[in-house]
Structure formats: C-alpha cells, structure tokens
Amino acid sequence: MTTFVDRVVLHVTAGNGGHGVASVHREKFKPLGGPDGGNGGHGGDVVLAVDPQSTTLLDYHRSPHRRAGNGAPGAGDERHGANGEDLILPVPAGTVVRTRDGRILADLVEDDARLVVARGGRGGLGNKALASPRRKAPGFALLGEPGEALDVVLELKSLADVALIGFPSAGKSSLVSVLSAARPKIADYPFTTLVPNLGVVTAGSERFTVADVPGLIPGAHEGRGLGLEFLRHVERCSVLVHVIDCATLEPGRDPMTDLEVIEHELSEYVADDTLGGKPLSDRTRIVVLNKADVPEARELAEMVRPDLEERGLEVHVVSAVAHSGLKELTFALARHVAAHRAEMAQVDHAPQRVVLRPRAVDDAGFHVRRESTPEGEAYRVIGERPTRWVRQTDFSNDEAVGYLADRLARAGVEEALVKAGAVAGSTVLIGDADDAVVFDWEPTLVSGAELLGARGTDLRLEEAGGRRTSAQRREEFHARKDAQTAAREELAHERRAGVWREDDD
What we know:
This protein folds into 3 domains: 1-156, Spo0b-associated Gtp-binding Protein, Chain: A (Distorted Sandwich); 162-346, Rossmann fold, CATH 3.40.50; 366-465, GMP Synthetase, Chain A, domain 3, CATH 3.30.300.
C-alpha cells in the first residue's frame, strides 16, 4: 500500500459569493420604508499552508478534489449573508506549487508559509447598498461571483543539506542509519529504498540534515528507474555525496565507472533555478568509498583513491557496518555545510524595493478588441471590471440590465465601442473566450437612469422589447372601435345601394 506520495494534481474550487437580495421594508403604520436588502457573503478561499507534521501528499492523491465554503445569501431587514469558510490545506515543507503548464506559483519552505491558491467570489450587493438619489428603491440586487477553479500540481522536494546518491544497494540507507537516528529499511536487494529518508546529523555545534535518495541507474535523467522522481529531492541540497560500493560483484562495475555514470546523470538533469541556485553538477561533491570492512573492497578503495583525489574530489573510505571513518566523514560534511551557510548569509538579501506603478490617466481598465467569428464580426470587451459586472447581473430583471448598461456607459465602454467601429446591432462579447456573454449592442441604452419605470422594470428595455404602455393599449382599443364602426357603416351603405339584401323568410 502506498504511504508516500510526492507529486499530485490538485483540483481546487473556491466558494461562490452569496447573492444580494432585493427587499423593501414593510412595517405597519410606516409606509415608504425604503429598501433594506442585505448583501451576500463572500466565498471562502482555498489556502495551502505548511504543516510541520505533514510529510507526504498522500491525502490529496486519494481525494484530489477540494472545495471551499460558499457565501450565504443576504436577507431582508439589512441582514448580510455569512462569509464562506476558508479551506486550509496542510502541505509539507518543501512543496512547490505549479500550474498545469509548469509555471511556479510558490515555493513553500518556511513553517508559516501560506498561499491563497484560489480566491472566493465576492458577495452580491443588496438593493440597500444600490440605492441612490436617482434610484431610490432598486427592484434588483447583484448576484454573487463564482469562485476561482483551477488545477495545480504539488511537488514535494526534500529539505536537506546533504544528499546521498549512488547506485542501488551501495549502502546509502545503512550510512544514514549510523549517522543519524533515522531507521530506513535495509535489505540485500536493489531498490530497497523507494522514498527519500531524512536524518538529522550533529557534528560538534553544527546540525544538518542528510537525505537518503533511492538508487540511480543509467538513464535516470530520462525517467528510467523512476530517476526523475528521485532526482527532484536533491535540488535543494548544497552537498552531494557519492556513495560507491567497492564490494560489488556485478560485471562492468567499478568505482570509477560508477562515479562517471552518476556524474553524467547529474549533468543531464535540468533542475529548477529557483530551488538550488546552481546546477547539480556544479555543487560540492564528496566521494564515499563504502563497505571497507571487506578486505578486497578496502584494497580497491585505496587503489582508486589517488585517482579520485587528482580530480579534485574529497574522498572518504568508510564502513557503515564496522563504523569506521564515520567521524571524519561527519565533520567533513559539517564543514562544507557551514561554509555554504556562511556563503548564503553573505549574500546581500536587501529588502525588496516597493515599486509604485501609478495608473495612467488614459487607462480605462479595459480594452475593446475587434474579432472575426464564424457568425461574423464581433467586438470583445476585455477587462476585470466589465467582466465582473456582467457576472453580477441578473438578466431576468430588466432594471438590473439597465443598471449594467449605465455602469458600462459610465466606464466608457460605449465610447470605446464607437471608436472601434461598432454600430447599432453589432455583436459585443464581454469576458474571456470561455465564459463570455454575448450582446446585440443597442446604443440607446446610454440615456441614463432618468427613464426608470416601476420597480424591476426599465422603460428603455420595454421600448426595445416592444412591450406596450397603457397609452398605447388605449390608442389601440379606440382604433379597433373606430374600425368596427367604419365597417358597420360601409355594410349599411352597401345594403341601401342594393349591393346585397337580406333574404325574406
């Protein structure tokens, strides 16, 4: 059964905002109470937070779909809806958050690191908040916005100072077990270790973390033998330790060949620049000739040691079984780790300057793009505010549609459409390509809110939609009566002229 997962695809959805409510205060002996509709609550966010107690992404592998709470709708008597509950997802330290296309959103390393990966939708305003001197009792309210929904990739990369790398069964797990209090699985067959093991080592006043990476084989940088999954855990390490098995009996295996093979895999692996700072092949490397308790292995180690030192590599001959050479190795690792920490401390971590980018005077917050569609020419309005306004509009309410037209007109959308070449009847799309709303542009809607009718209606839309007024219905009634009278008079005139007569019984 799988107990360790270091890469998952998480499908997150933030909470939707609650709808506002259109309500009028009604109380006995208090006429004209005015609007009292409350606002809807905001939707909950989806937050990734580092949890020191988490060591795996297994929970998200089993249930990858997560959703935050929705905001509650408003109510009458100025009662606002409750905000949706945020969804806090604990992740281990060292988790890298990416998009599906590989763009890094955050590198969660610190214990208190948090990332709002999906924001909840805004709650809609009630008619109380929409009231104005011109629109005293709005008969509509704004809808809540939907929450963000996206897929993110979580990758767990070990936080360790030293990484033990080498062929399977080279003795990496045994070395970690004697250097620290870690107790990894140890067996006499290859690929015993399938997940990284971390151990804390103390050498004098220095404390550092050692990672036991599963064994690498030729072609690991291409994914052979799960090499890519193993190599990702050494990206944060400052010191790489080559653990070489000097007692192997496999044909074609010797310390120099093993070193060259692993070095080739390190040079071919493309690491993230934001995680390690330097390529794996440029980091500090130490060679450990293991299993020196075997006489033939010790002789081979002493034979190849001068060749390795000529390459500029620091070499240690150790035996995890006999506990020989471990003290020297431990203090050597502590020295390199301390040097790396001192180097990082000397790096100028100047506080990030605050860059002020004032908004341009001619920046309307949107732009109009002319497009060619299969249905013909269209004009797309792209901008955060117009898109949000459309999402908040209840198109079943004429007054809400008129309010949207007024907002777009005040923002300058109508003028931008005219400059782009739009005419009456042109197709206008507001929003992105996935969820755009299509309109047949009618410039007459820019006349303003002074043509308001009854609550929930807009005279501009009534005229555009052909709905008859009382005066029109009265005129049509009198026209029908006049037509009936004229028809009766014509029939009587024809009867008197003998054009036709009634048959006698």
